[in-house]
Write a structure and sequence with these properties.
The protein folds into three domains: about 20-125, Orthogonal Bundle (434 Repressor (Amino-terminal Domain)); about 125-195; about 200-295, Winged helix-like DNA-binding domain superfamily/Winged helix DNA-binding domain (Arc Repressor Mutant, subunit A, Orthogonal Bundle), CATH 1.10.10.10. Helices cover about 65% and strands about 0% of the residues. It contains 16 helices and two strands. The protein has a two-stranded antiparallel ribbon. Helix 8 runs antiparallel to helix 9.
Length: about 300
Amino acid sequence: MTTPTDPPVPPDRPRPGRKLGPIAGNVGSTHRAWLVPMRDTYLASGLTLNALSDRIRFAKSKLSELLRGVGLYPRWEVVFLIAAELGMPNWPLYRLWRQAAFEAHRSGEWVERCTQRTTILTATDTAPPMDHRAFRELTEGHYLLYAQVFLDDEEPDAAVSDTYDTLWLSWNDARTSTDTRRYAWNVLRDTVLARTPHHDGRPELGTAAFDTLALRSLTDPTDDMDQIPELVMLFTAISHLPRRQFDVMVLRHLCGFTPEAVSALVGASLATVRSDERHATHFVRDVLDSPPSTEGTFP
């Protein structure tokens, strides 16, 4: 009987210390946009809260609160130190942190005070990875069309910009995912719908939807008023669709994409897109053909 020269490799051991709690439910969408990638990077780093606390000289309890979005909105100096320790790009992180600070009702003076010690590093407009830039060039126009269905004025541009900043922070995860297009689409979708007004838990397509192909195709102004109730019912029915079917209907019938373009944009097979559209169309037709007594009763 021989004895192996190398000892067996021990199984992976759980991270020592208390497990990091979930993100607080009241964390805003832009705050979450930078906090989720930071948490994911921390969890993938193998560091414990104790080790990270020692490295950046910040109390472990406060660090735990920051990574859960609990308590006061964090100062940039601390976020910057954590990002530097974890190897995260500071430029997209700073833009998202700044916007979330204003959404948390922090003043411009407070934001400027927070960045005084890191002004030079924070102000450095570093370039994202080359493949990230190429991906943005290919998708940005299409992403804007989707965002414009839900948001008005400058909000679509801001939502799409935040999407690419979020992707930059988690680009390694996007590249190693099953499909980068699908990963990115989910980030865009979550970013846009987080800013979209909701009614009974459903996104409102709202006034932006009335500027779609369906309404622009009307040539007689007197027909507009007759069509509006039908359009409202149509948009309401679409808002009750499952996630994938909802996106396919918005992209196909409110943005005007071909099935092939939808497939390439969202990272789904052409057969899946056509199947989703077929099922969604049946549902919408059933709703629109329902008698008045059943209007508004959706599954």
